[in-house]
Amino acid sequence: MRGFKSLILLQLVYITSCMDQLHIVYEWTQLDFQFPTLDDRHQAISNGTFIPENNMPMGVEVFGDRLFITVPRWRTGVPASLTYINLKDNSTVSPKLIPYPNWGAHIPGPDGKPEIVSPFRVRADKCNRLWVVDNGKINNLGNNTIKYPPAILIYDLTTDTLLRKYELPKDQVKEDSGFANIAVEDRDCDDTYAYAGDVGKAGIVVYSWAKNDSWRISHHFFHPDPLACDFSVKGYNFSWTDAIFGLGLSGPNADNYSTLYFHPMASYNEFSVSTEYLRNQSLAENNFDAFKLLGSRGPNAQSSVSFVDPKTGVLFYSLVNLNAVACWRTTNKNYNMKNQGRIYMNDETMIYPTDIKVDYNDNLWILSNRMPIWMYGQLDPNEVNFRVFFAHVVDAISHTACDITPRSDILDKFVNKIKNVTNKIAAKVNPNSAATVSPFSIVSTLAASWILAFVIFV
């Protein structure tokens, strides 16, 4: 009986290790910025333009040797809302944020408006451009919210200069609009499309680089589900009615169209539509059934951000109530709980995964920020509150339902994984006496059990 309990313990540890493929590469208790001088920093704190506890990292993106981090102006005291850190600098795991493209872009002009107001998330395309969807709101969690027209800003990442700024037309912006996410279809650098989700007033604004024009598309699937508006994160219970939030674009098909996978945050379901319809407003409005319901993530599985890795076809997405990140292979015909994999889950380090990206070197990046605690309570400045996770995509999805390894190789990987963890934990199972079960026999038994499970469930 004791040996059986040990075997069960080993299996549980093994299962846990399969969901622990991410590595924390950066972490902060509070954000700080690389001011020109120390005196400038002291002055910013003194005059209230920098209030450390009011700065909340929201979006992440990686391009070249830079990791971009957005810091929306939710509250006052945010000196720069789009920043980056140098990935080549290994001197600290808590680097100071460098304003992008420079400090000048974040200083208010004569009209009181900076070049960059308050972006939530950004996207770097394959054409060396950084797409910034600027929400345009300052202090929207305070009493005196300042609103500027939302805009899409596109920067040249080779020269760090502004290529174009496009303010969204008034008829495409509603009273409660909030543009929190952007997806970019960059198959053709001269004919690129950007899709900005309106989380406040359900809709997608589609922008054409070639036409320098935009249009707004509406659909019932963009709206929140009234039965999925209750959230609970780290003891904080709240209701959010966020509309379309997660936006994940597949690679292009034979006709050079992509599939947009999307979901409202207040929803358990995932949806999809071909960009063939989104690129044409009248076509989208006249083809309601082109928007597809894929299936459900299950109870308590609301999701904010998502991202599709075009190479593997894996859709990554957050599970905000569960402090987790999960995945689904878009080549799988069925979108259900059985076919969804758990990438990472931790009730301390992954509290509110707020952004997910895959860079052009096939690396997965995730940012967690404890936002509900920051909004409804208070973060402890002595604890680590913000973390950036990293893993190669193939490692992140290994041993999950999203694994793209051929089946025979997966079984070999199971055995190798068990061999690696067995030696590390055998002593913990029975530390005061010699092991009653040899590591080899444990490996064989575990491998057999996993093969059986694999055959039954896969």
Oligomer: single chain
Query: Would you report the number of β strands?
Result: 28
**Order of strands side by side in the largest beta sheet?**
1-28-27-26
First CA to last CA: what distance?
30 Å
Number of helices: 8
Give the uncertain stretches in residue-range form: 1-18, 433-458
How would you concisely characterize the structure shown here?
The protein is α+β, with helices and mostly antiparallel strands and 458 residues long. The protein has helices spanning 2-18, 38-47, 275-278, 281-285, 371-376, 393-396, 407-429, 439-457, and strands spanning 23-28, 59-63, 66-70, 82-86, 98-99, 119-124, 129-134, 137-138, 146-147, 151-156, 161-167, 179-185, 193-198, 203-208, 213-217, 230-233, 236-239, 244-249, 259-264, 269-274, 292-296, 306-309, 314-319, 324-329, 340-345, 353-358, 363-368, 386-392.
Describe this structure in words.
Helix 7 crosses helix 8. The strands form 8 sheets. The protein has a 4-stranded antiparallel sheet with strand order 1-28-27-26. Strand 13 (193-198) and strand 14 (203-208) form a beta hairpin. The longest helix is centred in the C-terminal third of the chain and has 23 residues, at 407-429. The chain is 19% helix and 32% strand. With 458 residues, it is an alpha+beta fold. It is globular, with a radius of gyration of 23 Å.
List the helices and strands and how they pair.
Elements (H helix, E strand, L loop, with lengths): L1 H17 L4 E6 L9 H10 L11 E5 L2 E5 L11 E5 L11 E2 L19 E6 L4 E6 L2 E2 L7 E2 L3 E6 L4 E7 L11 E7 L7 E6 L4 E6 L4 E5 L12 E4 L2 E4 L4 E6 L9 E6 L4 E6 H4 L2 H5 L6 E5 L9 E4 L4 E6 L4 E6 L10 E6 L7 E6 L4 E6 L2 H6 L9 E7 H4 L10 H23 L9 H19 L1
Antiparallel strand pairs: 1-28, 2-3, 3-4, 4-5, 6-7, 7-10, 8-9, 10-11, 12-13, 13-14, 14-15, 16-17, 18-19, 19-20, 20-21, 22-23, 23-24, 24-25, 26-27, 27-28
Helix pairs in contact: 1-7, 7-8
